[in-house]
UniProtKB/TrEMBL annotation:
Protein name: Lytic transglycosylase
Annotated keywords: Signal
GO molecular function, one term: peptidoglycan lytic transglycosylase activity
Organism: Acetobacter cibinongensis
Residues of the signal peptide: 1-21
Keyword Signal applies: yes
Length: 336
């Protein structure tokens, strides 16, 4: 996904790094220089082990976890240092992530899980389309969750990465998760940057937002779909999702609309937008005239336009990219 920042819902962390997915971490770190290691990897791991045990973690669990990383993972380092730089338009992004196959696969996946999605949507007060849209974009409905051992990835990046302090912190959070018994070291799989399971949570996000469904059990975001859906829903709920409100809709804008009138920060009542000639693409009147919204044109004034509401910004807490939030909204609407 596109660039993310580390967000703690309700406040912005001082570290301008992602909290959720490894792809986003990679994007945020793209231009950071890689430092030279000052100690051997064996010495580094010994220090991690010592500190983890001092923090009260079970020595046997720590040993099992660190046994998965004997030397820096060359594949992780290569992926970290060779991120392609390119500019993608909204039109290209939309064609790339909202394909006919992604829609048909999503419709089939949601149809099989309709009951549990609806139950979790009701419990958390979060639209099931948003849950399904994030599930689809993050892991292709649970199919693509990553094959790297998370401890190996995080230890490699903490040792030889471009933001070693960030990844060292995530490494200890991952060890803490293992110490709690939610997953085994071998089962803790994810992206090369340490994003885990079907929602692609970094360990810090897991500790804050991962949930079990029904409540009270292990939080398994790797293979337990109710836990996956509950975790995504919990994330959005804690970030301020408003039940019963839409994320946004495609609109037509009048030729008189100026650049100064568009953007997420230009929030006006829907009645204002209707009054100056903004119209729903589907025709008719706006169904939420009492709400406030903003007009965004992700490819500029000559491209598509959307009227977006509060819940659009909540989706951006998962990934602060207009493209991503639009993708979640449109995909979710198409498959639920």
């Amino acid at each position: 996904m596109l660039k993310r920042r580390m967000l703690v819902c309700g406040a912005v962390s001082s570290m301008a790094l992602p909290a959720v997915t490894g792809k986003a971490v990679a994007k945020a770190l793209q231009k950071a220089p890689a430092p030279a290691a000052t100690q051997s990897y064996e010495t580094f791991l010994a220090g991690v082990r010592r500190e983890a045990i001092q923090k009260g973690m079970n020595a046997s669990i720590v040993d099992d976890a660190l046994s998965l990383t004997r030397q820096p993972n060359a594949s992780v380092i290569k992926a970290d240092r060779h991120q392609p730089e390119f500019t993608m338009t909204w039109a290209k992004y939309k064609d790339r992530v909202i394909t006919n196959k992604k829609i048909t696969d999503g419709q089939a996946a949601v149809a099989k899980r309709r009951s549990i999605l609806r139950a979790i949507s009701t419990e958390y007060g979060v639209d099931e389309a948003a849950i399904a849209g994030i599930w689809g974009l993050e892991s292709a409905y649970g199919v693509k969750t990553g094959t790297y051992h998370v401890i190996d990835s995080l230890a490699t990046l903490a040792y030889d990465g471009r933001r070693s302090a960030f990844f060292r912190s995530e490494l200890f959070k991952a060890l803490h998760i293992l110490n709690q018994g939610d997953i085994t070291p071998a089962g803790m799989l994810g992206s090369y940057a340490g994003a885990m399971g079907q929602p692609q949570f970094m360990p810090s996000a897991y500790e804050r937002y991962a949930a079990s469904y029904p409540a009270g059990g292990r939080r398994d975001i790797w293979t337990n779909e109710p836990d996956v859906f509950a975790s995504i829903a919990n994330y959005l709920a804690k970030c301020g999702w408003r039940a019963g409100e839409p994320w946004g809709e495609a609109v037509r804008v009048p030729a008189s609309l100026t650049v100064g009138q568009i953007g997420r920060t230009v929030v006006k009542p829907v009645s204002y937008w209707a009054g100056i000639g903004v119209q729903p693409v589907l025709g008719g009147q706006f169904g939420h005239a009492a709400m406030d919204g903003a007009v965004i044109c992700p490819d500029g004034m000559d491209g598509e336009a959307y009227l977006v509401y509060h819940n659009f910004n909540v989706i951006r807490r998962y990934n602060p990219s207009d493209f991503y939030a639009l993708g979640v909204g449109l995909l979710g609407s198409a498959i639920v």
